Amino acid sequence: MTHRTTTTLRGVAVAVGLALLVGCTSTEPDPEPTDPAPTSTAEPEPGPEEVALPDHAAGRAAAWVMSLLDDEPGAPLPEAEERFAPEFLEELPVEALAEVIDQLRTFGPWTVTAVEGTESELVARIEGVQSFDLQLSLDEDELIQGLFFATPAPDREPAASWEELVEEVEDLPGSVSMLVARPADQGCVALDGGPAGPVGSAAGEQLPVGSVAKLYVLGAVVEAVEAGDLAWDTDLTLTDDLRSLPSGELQEEPAGTTVTVEAAAEAMISISDNTATDLLIDAVGREQVEAALTSMGHSDPAANTPFPSTRELFQLGWGGGAELRNQWRDAGTEERRALLEELPDGEIDIDVVEVTRATVWHRDVDWFATAEDLCLAHAALAELAGTEAGAPVRDILALNPGVVPADAGAPAYLAFKGGSVTGVMAGAWYAEDAEGDPVVVTLQSASRDPAGGLPVTTMVGIATDALRLALQDD
């Protein structure tokens, strides 16, 4: 999550414009009109200095995108079908892409002020009325396979002390909870010298966690293997009824594709593959995942019962409008099970642009946990990893560390799962020092404003500091 890699950008075809639309849309009412400001006689500030895009494949593709942004609103997107990879346009047709580009045009004219990257992927800072990071990646045929307009995260200085870090967390907007704790027999306990418990505006409260909930799916898989109901080398078969939306890559494969349980688990954790997750939920059964909530220490399993698949969450959140979201919010457990049964099978039909315009977690459309729940989930998986049935778990959880380990105190072992959806950002890290002593860092943020989500770089920076401070205090 801290590196701009091809893998990261490859998964955002469906999310083109997500950060753009989040950054330009708000659920807050329009402000009251105010008196016009007095006219200033001061000299205007000079505009940002323009930087040339590089003359290589990614640079030329970015220059073409910039030419689209400079057109008048409503102008067509010439050559779009020749410039974008077919898989990209399957997820986001030209008509939907044109809507995103049109919104950006209203914030121009645009100036490129910084650029970094390679011939196959690039990030350019573009300045207009607002600022965005244009992130672009190419496939092997030099077609655009990933395009993302991200709101730049505010600059931050690394925290030099727990006091500085806690102050930063408590000043974050939205509902925020951070925990730095050590798993122990009596639960998750505070570190000596660290925060005494959860901190933040919603410290210790139950908040949405997005894909961090996949930790419970992984736990359910181990328990199914232990019970003899499943094996790590069991083949799972992709069907259209189990196909979800990105993040991930498996959704691009044809029906009938098979993957092993272990490969699906690796994809679920390392790239948060939603379709791989749903294959695993289908394999173990929804009830097994719900049981794992209890066995892994969740304080309120009923909050996630029934446990939706990722596909079902998309359908509940953005497939039936506010009416379906409100039905879900107001329904009891059995009524919710009935709603899940009524969701359509086959090819999933979701307006990917709509996903960026509506926060849904406050309608109970997400998975929920407290900071301590996530700490206990990591501790439970660490224990399961020491069993024969859970042998692959330790390596699986370490596939994507979520931070640069060298910047985070260089732990001897680092496990991570993150999650995000419109208005929601969450991450949970489990680290061990050279002596094998564990520490867990969790950070959750939720906002009803689609533009209010915590920037991923801010989350990563805070987690990096928390891990570094925790490990240096050992």
Briefly characterize the structure.
The protein is an alpha+beta fold.
Structure characterization notes:
This protein is 36% helix and 17% strand. The chain is built from 18 helices and 13 strands. It has helices at residues 6-10, 18-24, 57-69, 80-83, 86-91, 94-105, 162-170, 214-226, 261-270, 274-284, 286-295, 310-318, 321-330, 333-342, 352-355, 371-384, 393-397, 456-473, and strands spanning 111-117, 121-127, 131-138, 144-150, 175-184, 187-190, 207-208, 235-237, 258-260, 368-369, 413-421, 424-432, 438-446. The strands form 4 sheets. The protein has a 5-stranded antiparallel β-sheet. Strands 1-2-3-4 form a 4-stranded antiparallel β-sheet. Helix 8 (214-226) runs parallel beside helix 16 (371-384). The model is unreliable at 1-44 (pLDDT under 50).
